[in-house]
Specification:
The complex is a heterodimer of chains A (174) and B (102). With 174 residues, chain A is mostly helical. Chain A is built from 6 helices and no strands. Chain B is globular. Classes of the chains: A mainly alpha (174), B mainly beta (102). Chain A: This is DUF4142 domain-containing protein.
Chain lengths: 174, 102
């Protein structure tokens, strides 16, 4: 039910994993920057919804952590692209992510109370897992600029941390 | 080579004299506690310097919990002997350890 944004990332992942991967499938740095920024923005939007809707302190605290961290990552990304004079380039992966995330937010918006909390946190676990996989197997190996690669590597550690944090919160909701 | 030698000799001398509490520095950079493992004595203070733009914590399950804001510091004074593993509540993949001797 909340698999759409993750499915888009999974598609990206599988395309790249299918041998032999044509060179054209490899995203460029401007596209990678756009995908990473979009992935962060999606989590910020989901967090804002959770802060507004949830009455559960653990869930709201978690959402605030997500909002704060992803805004910090995205600000660093913006600073970096400015410094490198790279213009993030919209692409099919970013578009698919944004479209799917909008649909998911609409679904989440209809849920209430414990149902919302559970759905939000479960989606956070799945979403972070998928972003981790995309970062690890495609975005980081494809990045050619060393500073972009380094930022993505830090981003991966943040996402992995969030995944564990989300799993912890999910455990408390049971 | 001289300053580090002098520094460690001084630390040793201070550590050896009862009543002198040391401050042990741990840096956080790109979600890594460094050094990951430190040795301290009861009464010593651990001071974390966070170079990241992300807030972190140093948290011991069932024990102390130190907030370390972005680009800031956090500290704790060690009150009991024993080895403790700590982690960051916001990023539980960040782990550190303190071995506290009496």
């Amino acid at each position: 039910m909340f698999t759409r944004p993750t499915a888009a990332l999974a598609a990206l992942f599988f395309v790249s994993a299918a041998p032999p991967a044509p060179a054209a499938e490899k995203p460029t740095d401007p596209q990678i920057a756009h995908i990473a920024y979009t992935a962060g923005s999606i989590d910020i939007e989901a967090a804002k919804l959770a802060i507004k809707k949830s009455k559960n302190k653990e869930v709201v605290d978690f959402a605030k952590d997500m909002e704060r961290d992803h805004e910090a990552v995205n600000n660093q990304a913006l600073d970096l692209v400015k410094k490198l004079k790279v213009t993030p380039e919209d692409n099919d992966t970013s578009k698919a992510l944004a479209k799917a995330a909008k649909e998911e937010r609409a679904k989440l918006a209809k849920l209430k109370g414990a149902d919302f909390d559970k759905a939000y946190i479960e989606n956070e676990v799945a979403y972070h897992k998928q972003v981790d996989a995309a970062l690890e197997t495609l975005l980081i190996p494809s990045a050619s600029n060393a500073e972009l690669k380094s930022l993505l590597e830090t981003g991966l550690k943040i996402f992995q941390g969030h995944e564990q944090h989300a799993e912890h919160v999910a455990g408390m909701l049971k | 080579m001289r300053p580090p030698l002098l520094g460690s000799a001084l630390a040793l001398a201070l550590g050896a004299s009862p009543g002198f509490a040391a401050t042990i520095e741990v840096t956080i950079d790109k979600l890594v506690f460094s050094p990951a493992s430190v040795q301290a004595k009861v009464g010593d203070t651990i001071e974390w310097t966070n170079r990241d733009v992300y807030a972190h914590t140093a948290t011991v399950k069932g024990g102390w919990d130190v907030m370390i804001p972005a680009k800031s510091k956090g500290r704790v004074t060690l009150k009991t002997a024993g080895a403790v593993d700590y982690f960051c509540r916001f990023h539980p993949n960040m782990k550190g350890r303190i071995e506290v001797t009496p």
